[in-house]
Amino acid sequence: MTPPEPLPPLLPTQHRSPAERLLHGKGVATAVGRGRAEDWTRLDQGVSVHTWRPGPRWSTGRFRVGFHWFDSRELADWTTAPHWHETGPAGGPGGVAGWSQPPTESEIALALCHADPRLRAAALRLAEDGALPAATLPLVLIRCADTDATVRELARAVLDGALCGSGAAADDAARALVPLALLLDLRRHGSWAREAVLDRTGRRGEVVAEAVAELLASRAFACRRAGVRAAASAGLLDAAGAYAAAERETDVSVAVEAARTAVRLSRRAVEADETAREDVLGRFHALMGLRRDPVLARTVLATALDEDLLGPADLVRLAVSHHGRTTRRTALAALLAVHDPSPFLDTLATARDAAVRSAAVERLRTAGRGGELARHLTDSHAPVRALALRELRAAGGDPYAAYRSLCLDPAAVTPAAVTGLAGRRDPEDVPLFHALTRHALGPVRARALAALRMLGALPGDGPVAFADDPDRTVRKTVLRAVRHQPEALRVLLTAAHGDVRATALDLLSTRHGLAQREIAPFLEDPAPSVTRVARGAVRCNRSELPLPFLLDLAAPDRPRAQRAAGLALMHDDGARLLAALRLADDPDATLRWTARGETVRLLRRLEEEVGAPYGDEVRRLVERHASGIPGWQDEIRRRNRTTRGR
Question: I want to staple 112 with a disulfide (CB 3.0 to 4.6 A). Which of 139, 304, 374, 438 is the partner?
Answer without folding.
Answer: 139
